[in-house]
């Protein structure tokens, strides 16, 4: 997308605003399918938690994607967006048995990640196909909050608990049709991922009626020029060869599944905010925008870096700025960034804002959540309205009657 397109969107829909480029999403989907074209059966399940707007889900469905969900609400969104139940995998963590049973009644693929629930569900519903999430005890992820395959993680059934797992399956006679892992986000070392895959292959040998093996996702995307990223083409060649070998050994052509989220939508997203104040202090120059970590929490939560560009003055002289928000506590998007000269009223674009930005937004400080816009076929389409004050108070119950104190009239003596 061009700066002029982004500026036009802010004039039409205001700022702050999230913008998603459908063409970039489509090209990322094709890049991943091309990397694994040597696999007989490939299924990409888009991770809805990255960006769950129903129009984005419809776009994914139109591309031929399945859907990875982690809550019953995401399952319901996926069905509403047109996904067939069998193309949705439900991988919750720490939810009630009742929620898992509700998902099962909707006909989606169940993925269970702990022994207790596995035993309870298998005892009650032995005929319902179940995938098992394994914890391979392999560390991946650029931040401890997004590394989920290590030994201290709450996710998955430990590979050291395989004997117990097999005993549950044997006693319940439940139907295991898939094996799954997810090491975490920001995979940098392909060999580490392949090592974890070998653990998954070894585990799969214990189950004779599998339909698929799900390798999760976590492909790293670049956040700045020259940044490192997962080499999905190299991974595709190596894992395809090994997967096809395993299928030959297993005696059945299985489906290779992935659950990309950030990889598909991160680079497609822009978050646009207007500069309210340019403030010179004794140590730095602050550019304060009409937003904060209530709209883009990743820099404060994960220490993530989002490239920031001045779309109002793309050819201006570069100067150093610390870009901060309007939230009433430390609220920094980027410190000492080299950005084209900023003036009050300029529009700044935060790149890589497609994943885990709106979905993690809040009404902190009672601020409104922004609009979302889809750039599709060179046109801007509003896919979520900007919130209003009515949205802030809509579900609140004003208990003012509790505080109407009746006071006796003062009588002059």
TrEMBL record:
Belongs to the Orn/Lys/Arg decarboxylase class-II family. LysA subfamily. The keyword Lyase applies. This is Diaminopimelate decarboxylase. Homodimer. It comes from Croceitalea marina. The keyword Cell division does not apply. Its EC number is 4.1.1.20. It catalyses: meso-2,6-diaminopimelate + H(+) = L-lysine + CO2. Residues 18-354 form the Orn/DAP/Arg decarboxylase 2 C-terminal domain. SUPFAM superfamilies: Alanine racemase C-terminal domain-like (SSF50621), PLP-binding barrel (SSF51419). Its cofactor is pyridoxal 5'-phosphate. PANTHER family: DIAMINOPIMELATE DECARBOXYLASE, GROUP IV DECARBOXYLASE. It is an enzyme of class 4 (lyase). NCBIfam families: lysA.
